[in-house]
TrEMBL record:
<dbReference type="InterPro" id="IPR000967">
    <property type="entry name" value="Znf_NFX1"/>
</dbReference>
<feature type="domain" description="NF-X1-type">
    <location>
        <begin position="634"/>
        <end position="652"/>
    </location>
</feature>
<dbReference type="GO" id="GO:0008270">
    <property type="term" value="F:zinc ion binding"/>
</dbReference>
<keyword id="KW-0862">Zinc</keyword>
<protein>
    <recommendedName>
        <fullName>NF-X1-type domain-containing protein</fullName>
    </recommendedName>
</protein>
<feature type="domain" description="NF-X1-type">
    <location>
        <begin position="242"/>
        <end position="261"/>
    </location>
</feature>
<feature type="domain" description="NF-X1-type">
    <location>
        <begin position="190"/>
        <end position="208"/>
    </location>
</feature>
<keyword id="KW-0812">Transmembrane</keyword>
<feature type="domain" description="NF-X1-type">
    <location>
        <begin position="349"/>
        <end position="369"/>
    </location>
</feature>
<keyword id="KW-0479">Metal-binding</keyword>
<feature type="domain" description="NF-X1-type">
    <location>
        <begin position="492"/>
        <end position="507"/>
    </location>
</feature>
<feature type="region of interest" description="Disordered">
    <location>
        <begin position="1"/>
        <end position="30"/>
    </location>
</feature>
<keyword id="KW-1133">Transmembrane helix</keyword>
<feature type="domain" description="NF-X1-type">
    <location>
        <begin position="697"/>
        <end position="719"/>
    </location>
</feature>
<keyword id="KW-0677">Repeat</keyword>
<dbReference type="Pfam" id="PF01422">
    <property type="entry name" value="zf-NF-X1"/>
</dbReference>
<feature type="domain" description="NF-X1-type">
    <location>
        <begin position="295"/>
        <end position="314"/>
    </location>
</feature>
Amino acid sequence: MTSAWTRPHSHPSPSPPTILSDSDSDADGFSSAAEIHRHSDLSNSIFKPYLEFSGHSGADLSKIQSFLTSSSAGALSCLICLERIKPSDPTWSCSSLCYAVFHLICMQSWARQASDLAAARAATRLPISPATASDTALWNCPKCRSEYPKSHIPKTYLCFCGKVENPPNDPWVLPHSCGEVCERPLKRNCGHHCLLLCHPGPCPSCPKLVKVRCFCGCIEDVRRCGFKEFSCNNPCSKVLDCGVHRCTEVCHRGACPPCRTRGVYACQCGTVKEEKECWDRVFQCDHPCEKKLGCGKHVCERGCHSGECGECPLKGKRTCPCGKRVYEGMPCDASVQLCGATCDKMLPCGYHRCPERCHRGQCVETCRVVVKKSCRCGSLKKDVPCYQDLACERKCQRMRDCGRHACKRRCCDGDCPPCSEICGRRLRCKNHKCPSPCHRGPCAPCPIMVTISCACGETRFEVPCGIEMDQKPPRCPKPCPITPLCRHASNCKPHKCHYGACHPCRLPCAKEYQCGHTCKLRCHGAKPPPNLEFTLKPKKKKIIQQSEGVPGTPCPPCPELEWRSCVGKHIGADRMMVCSDKSQFSCENLCGNPLPCGNHYCTKTCHALENQLRESEPCEDCYLPCQQEREPACPHSCPQPCHPGDCLPCKVLIKRSCHCGAMVHVFECIYYNSLSAKGQETVRSCGGPCHRKLPNCTHLCPETCHPGQCTNAEKCCKKVTVRCKCQTLKKEWVCQDVQAAYHHMGCHPKDTPKNQFGIGLIPCNSDCKSKVQVVESELQLRKSRVTEVQDQDTEKSVRKRRKRRERVLESKETSKLQKIISGAKRLLLFVFILIILVAATYYGYKGLLWLSDWMNEVDERRQRYSGIK
């Protein structure tokens, strides 16, 4: 066994305890650094003696470390008053389970109230004197509910180890500590004492080395006294309780388990054999023994058992069932006779005896003797059978021990049970309700401790529930575990653990642009996911989601300035522009490049040329009409836009009328303008008569179409009819004679209208006068006829007016008759309405009388019906 055993792993090398922060901010000021240094020195001074022996800091020191953290952060609070415990305040700490620290004054008040309440409760419930109840009263720790006698009510302010009264307040010593070695006996009564300086909380495990054996006793090893119990991991091999087999379990603490080896075993009477485990080999079957007793007449009525069955129970001295008559010498198989006397055995009630004659078997269980009983509360008395309990329906109105609720138990005997309801009052923490049964006095403080930790969870402390809202997270000296995601991760200075987002990187970006310049802004790269913000009580419905990292923003365009010329490359038009601004600019000058036409220059504002940039703008197209002079010259401009070289021949069709205006000729401009003046006159002639009106008469020119004025206008040989003024006489003259007559009269023939040409050239005679008289007489006759027709029309219109007036008079006479008829109708309607109103009044009155009689009759019937009843 020794060869199979391997030595346990050695303990790790000594390491200093974790440095805990005592601040609630992430600033790096001088004061915070001093506090952390002082806190570290205080921890080292307390744990140094223990670390020299144990070599490592285990879970035993967590309670003390938590107290140090909460004390340095100002979070040490009294659980009773929920006020902060100052280093100069007298305190008392529980020494049983929780080791919580309280104000001495608060604890004294709490203990007195609790012990007085317990004494009053014991005096009312137990049959003891008030002095005895006061001496034996107990009080509980507000947190762990450990019980202390009344004699242990704290009276003096002691340090944690209990050696010094009223320990002084030293800033370099743990508050409420004497600063000396604790020297309290360690747990498990190992005989050693605590090596730490005076400290709160439980003493750690004993760190001293001792030589001990494993659980089975096979291996001996040197172990820490606090962890001296160990297993060698070999089979136990101890002899089990059966005395036959050995323990097959690995070396273990405590007694060996029952033997599990299976086998076939017989019961105690030997009737049944079953397969059972070795530890359960002794068992009893379900069959009765039924072996013959010593008398040979009866069998054993006992169950399965070991050993002899014994003598027959009916052998020897026997009595009747009631025990009054004794029979001796009777055989065991003979039945005992009844004595005939009253049974007189005590009934189960304890007050009355059995009234039956001597009988076999049990007496009646229910005593039916009628007695006068009173209920438990004494409010009811009644004759009932003895076996029946009497209880009234009256509810007890006494207050229970809680002083808040009535008993309300039916027929209570005065000993009201404790209140079964939950207290439910809001505790001083204002976060929870009292879960204890309803009680007198103040509720116990909330026993819940709230853990406040840093973001990484390495530094933490506990505070009583109710004051956590005033606390801030502890300052942790550990580095922040979040790795920067920007390009300066290797150059960023590490910072301490914190809540929320990390500080932004303050280094310049220094990323190079494509143009060759570098970004001079502060780092704007990606940011890692931030820690959650410090919250003590997140809302239940609020789902806390892990926030994501913030992606970095791209570098802004290059802001450097440089000189840049305009797109037209004009001299003296350079400007200072931002490097990242790739846009081109144009100056205020005109382009000035020659256009493709070769005749004009580009008048656009400065623009990029096609051979310089991709996004170039061509020079404007020359949309001016061609301004060159054609050869031969013509009045038409060239229809093409401005173009280099000679213009095309003019193909415009021009219209030219003939000389007389009777016909219009159409020629091409190039053809007509290329002719000489004489040729143009020849081409324009239509070859027909002139047909132009002569200037001095109404006749047309008889010559062939010719240019210019018609010649020989005064030598017209056409015949003209000449009349006198009254147009009675007429003659035919030659036109030239007529023109000569007009000239002789002193007027020009051109001024004479066409319809008056030739009239008045011949003088009138006597025939003309007689004709004039006849015409005048005819005119007078026409006038007289016209007046007669007008008089007849006026008479007809007067007759029509008279007929209309007569009709109006007749209509007026008929309207009077209609008035009489309408008046009669109105009178009849009024009479009819009056008759209806009188009838309605009469029958309404009759109806009211009938209704009154009916109601009187109903009342009489009701009175008769009530009198019959």
